[in-house]
Records
---
Amino acid sequence: MNKHIAFLKDSRRARWAVLLFLSLVMFASYFFDDQFTTIGHIFKNPEILDLSWSSADYGLYGGAYSLLCVWGGLVVCGMLLDKWGVRITGTLFVLLMVVGAAVVMYGISSAFHDSALFHFMDRFFGKPSLALAYAGCALFGLGSEIAGVAVTRSIAKWFRGKEMALAMGLQLALARLGTAAALLVVPRIVNLNLDYIPFSETSKPALAGFVLLVCGLLVWSVFLAFDKKLDVQEAALAEHRGESTEKDDKFKFSDLFKVLGNKHFILVALLCVFFYACIISFRRFATSIIIPRFGIESDLASLMVSLIPFTTIIFTPIFGSLVDFKGKGTKWMILGSFLVLIAHLIIGFAPGLPVFGYVGIAILGVGYSLVPAAMWPSVPKIIPDKNLGTAYSLIYWIQNMGMLLVPIFVGRIIENNKGVKGAVYSEILFIGLALVAIAVSVILSHSSDSHPELKLDTPNKVK
């Protein structure tokens, strides 16, 4: 007698609850990563800061996020994700996020400045607070990226054949709500109207982010219970059918070279690095660019920058639904990359009226919604399930090369070219990156047309 065993992921409530749990973890990660975004202009005047960081120092700190990711951490940990599974590997790196955030929080605090550790590090580093925060940010970055891979792979597992692009779009939207929260909350909890800004003010965002990450760790534990139950159900069905519960397709090291030999994968990875460099690196220095460019105050600048995440919160799920039900994923990638180019042209060269700043930032947000909504769900179409952790990790690894280097270049540009000149030169760099992103997306689209069997432009939803 055949007994039907329903899977937990077939329950709409269960799989959307799982999506919420996963999204809240990344919400906390995005908040912490963007804690300084709307107050980044204070680093132009290091003499008024107890922290004593310059714009170049801030750019160096921002690049630390990608340090361990670039130097092999992401690739190795991605392979561990495929070998050990989401629950073990994901938990380790969610914990690493929390630890890294704690190190950053301590490194920029007055407690560290008055400690024996500070005086010891002062023998080797010109700015011990920067050195310790750099190490903490590197740990946080690796933890955040692998946690992001675990989240993306988990969504693919729970939503395959269902609303995968919508789910990934919603996860990105909710995660970017963390960025929006940072952009709006941080300027209101940090008192910048001082002739001298103490540690107690610049460390407030890190404390808020750390609390959110601890809450994210608790939510992750709830997801683990759901995911364990699903695996038990799948094992029970396999046993009921007389099938082996041992997986025959476990990850092998040789699979790494199979992934790297996939030209469509390489194109997606290249699009990722050039596209995200136009957004994430810009966002890190956004206030330092738009304040001199459009002659506005820091409060208005933070409100303007917040359009990026709020726009993506609205449009990413919409575009995800379009990809699910209408397809044409590679065409959306071209359009999104083109919109990012238009946005940077406006921010860099339109008349210096605030209205053009709002228009440019809003267009940037729409482009930021389009490409990820189509790009991330395309990976499971070209890579086998057993290699998804490695594939997403490799993409993040390549992306982090850009995130490591571009902030350093932009920080140097702004430090060496004051005012509008520095803003325009920075935008020229972003425009060049956007042009490369367009070229890569066009090549990917042509390749998709030549290989319809990959179904990169077909709808995700199975009818």
Note: Confidence is low (pLDDT under 50) at residues 1-5.
---
Amino acid sequence: MSAPHIVLASLVAAAVVAAIVDRPPRRVDAPGEVTITYWEKWTGFEGEAMRATVERFNQRGVTDSAGRKIVCRYLSTTQVDRKSLLAIAGGNPPDLVGLWSTNTHVFAEMGALTPLDPFIAESGHDLSRYIPVFLSRCRYRSPANGVERTWCLPTTPASVALHWNKDLFRAAGLDPERPPQSIAEMEEYCEKLTRRDDSGRVVQMGFLPVEPGWWNWSWGYYFGGRLNDGPERITADDPKNIAAWEWVCGFAEKYGREQMLSFRQGFGTFDSPQNAFLSGKVAMVVQGVWMANFIRFHNSQLKYGCAAFPSAFDTGGQPVTVADMDVIAIPHGSRHPEQAWAVIAYINSQEGMEFLCGDRANNGGGQGKLTPFNETSPGWIEQHTHPYLQVFIDLAKSRNAVAIPQLLVWDEYQQELSTAFELAWLGKATPAEALKAVQARMQPKLDRALAIARARAQEKTK
């Protein structure tokens, strides 16, 4: 939600919260206990992993400053970000909420979260343990007042990497243990891995940049580009971003836009055996650390590898990756912030995090991901079933690991980039035209959002 919509959302929230938020009846605390509520977005095996982590906390018998046992109730809910905002505005929030990292700065700017810094200082929670790119998205410096605070902590972090199908590499005469090392090799490998039937129809692509299409906004980073210069300046039309889009759109031009559209129509959904990579229709794909879970679920016989996606500039041995994470925060107005912090602290302990992000093979909760910490317990990585977990850890630690920009208008900016990319991919605009149009639209919108945020900050000081 961008800044211009904040006031409207606040005005309507209290009136509709009771109708939209599916809050169960409040539980009456047992003697000597205090119950807190935790809303989370996950379902399926990911939700069960967090539920099991919360249960481990409950079994520890942690007490608050009044000597009461803290009991955390875990509730899975859809549209958790929207429902949480409504509940916060209505004065009836949960004590804890699980969000996406992209929510952090927006919620913080709206005054919807409780800063964690006092709890961190009092408990001695060591922030130096965290991989910098993940910690950076827990903190936010408001451009309205220049104050930086810690608004959340991680739950399950991730980085992305190139995945390749070793059997398809071998069939194409490529070394199955050697992924492409450069942008030029990426093109060469793609050509060797692409197959057509007798009619000339593409039946297998070496690499398709728009599959899955979740990070089309990020291609510029692999060419040394940037989407912003701090919180106040949009840089969509950075020449390096344009060069990246020209390279990506070159695949559509080379292999045929109509061919690519037709080919993609045969893909199944992500979480299915018909997934383009899992079914062998695409030989290389950019995906996150979580992909190993779905390979295990849907094609456990797949022989694959993971490595950094090549860059078009000299990274100095620090490869580019997109890093992201889910986070946990204390909403503004929480009735039990002290007790909520105790749960956050446990999840962000070595024990709690390695259980949540581990998998059942090493007695973990089942998320099967990396932790946000610089170090892991001895043997934890070796016992993890992800065969390339260290690759994703190393990528997250890279100085060229990037995260979604903390811009007040990011949601709208991302939508504009997606629309512009589609136009460029379909040949309806050149990459330069598409990105310059985004620049022209988004900078004024960011300027207005910043002005509104500063005006609101000044009002609070009166």
Note: The radius of gyration is 23 Å.
---
Amino acid sequence: GFEAFLVGGCVRDLILNKTPKDWDVTTNATPEQIISSFSKTFYENSFGTVGVVNEQTENETLKVVEVTPYRLETGYSDNRHPDNVVFSQKIEDDLQRRDFTMNALAYNILQNKIVDLYEGKKDIKDKTIRTVGEPLSRFTEDGLRILRAVRFSAELEFEIEPQTEKAIQENVELLKNISLERIRDEFTKMIMSNNPMMALLTMKKLGLLPYVLPELVETIGIEQNRAHAYDVWEHLIRSVQHSADKNYPLEIRLSALFHDISKPESRRWGKEQNTWTFYGHEVLGARRARKILTRLKYPSKVIEKVVTMIRWHMFFSDTEQITLSAVRRMIANVGRENIWDLMNLRICDRIGTGRPKEDPYRLRKYHSMIDEALRDPISVGMLKIDGKKLIEVTKTNPGPKIGFILHALLEEVLEDPTKNTEEYLENKAIELISMPEKELEALGKQGRQTKEEADEEEIKKIRGKHWVK
């Protein structure tokens, strides 16, 4: 018998024909009445929000639906949370405390009716972000709304209207009162949106960078060498935008944004080169990125990966001179699990310079060399039997014959992989040990030659895959 409306972002997303990430319901029922209306709930806050649990659904967005009474809020002494919450019986009271008009919409499913007191539908149609009522009041109530406005503009590709922008610029210091964890969460959503470059440009325009990422401010206007079309700032935001265009994960996006963060402090004029140099910026940058991500309280696993990627992002060199052993050392430095992400970071770095081609020959050649280095080599180590076992089953002493037998067995397995079983190889070894040593040596040499030919064929396939020699 209670009223109930879908409210907030889920209504906005439905109007935009997007699938909501979560569902919020508002009602004239009290928390106690909400709890008594459902079989499984939890209530762990002072704002009246009850989590209604649905274990029957496979839809992740419906497993917990937050249901909150209509409420009025007063006093925001910490510029983040209300000092007092009073439950109400009117949906109008609830909507007036919302942040932006596009989020101040309530939808009654039974009546198929939207309550829209602040022209939220019109602002959605016009792709406009506007506060509910007077902007200054909304931002002083909750300073995090400043970052939410920027985040929504990037996620939805909406414009922040002039009065809302002006209020943000005049109240940026409110961000000093917001916990770093909340700032991190909003920043992460910006970076993980389809438009991180847009978000960062908006933060710069509105004066938010000094309060969130002051280190990025230092990169603005820092001219680079002839390999770059842009200053360090624009290079970084273009690099992170490419990581979003490729739908790369958070760690690559953060690495793309911060990989040259220490170019300002490492920049020196090279007289011989007659241009700017940035020696050691990757080492300094890795340290600086660690400080930034630690300050923003990112998980240690994220920090370690980003730091590793930035530290080694300057691996790229002349593929005609670099050796396979050098590639193996690089893999050892970053870890097998990170090497391809490092290559993807390199692609973002390249696109960020203003070069249109993301896979030039040198980069394809490096991909090929990594594939070669990661490939398990064709060797007697592939066999389901080793020298120790051979000595045991043939009842012979260590010596050249054991090596000959291993290579003879390898040739058989390369010809027919189904023979690579302990039983077959043991029986075959007993048969081979009785052969004269000269014949066994000839079989062993033939096996080595077959191995080398197979190895060469594998490498040829890898290089062909990457269109390199």
Note: The chain has four domains: 4-126, 128-209, 213-374, 382-465.
